[in-house]
Amino acid sequence: MSIKSAFQANTRPINSSRRIFIQGLVAGGVMAALGLNPAEAATINGRRQPPSLRGTEFDLVIDERPVNFTGQPRTAMTINGSIPGPTLRWREGDVVTLRVTNRLKVSTSLHWHG
To answer: Comparing C-alpha atoms, which of 69, 3, 2, 8 is closest to residue 34?
Structure first.
């Protein structure tokens, strides 16, 4: 049996109604999370967006905040009080200063996208 046929034998298409249900859960969780700090989240087409910060100097605070997405209270990591954290915008070629304060009880890291 080849590797290709072994993978094919164990795959099956995802039921589209299940996919829609899961997408709804994820979208609902994100929207609920952004509701933690509505003053910092803008509304675009009825959806909350993370705050957008512009410039060349940024202060980011990593902290914990109570959340309740499923009916069970939990603690979530936030950046500047929001989930997801802010979008940082600057121009190509700028020298940027990022000051990150970790208020968690443990070490952590950020995954930068760009």
So the answer is: 69
Determine the Cα–Cα distance for residues 36 and 52; give it in Å rounded to an integer.
Answer: 16
Q: Which residues contact 31 (CB under 8 A, 6 or more apart)?
A: 47, 48
List residues bridging with 53 in a β-sheet: 88
| SS3 of residue 109 by DSSP | coil
CB-CB contact of 82 with 88 (8 Å):
no
Direct distance between the N- and C-terminal alpha carbons of the chain, in angstroms, rounded to an integer: 41
At residue 24, what is the residue type? G
Q: Cα 80 from chain centroid?
A: 12
Q: pTM here?
A: 0.56
pLDDT digits (tens, 9 = 90+) for 41-50: 444 444 568 8
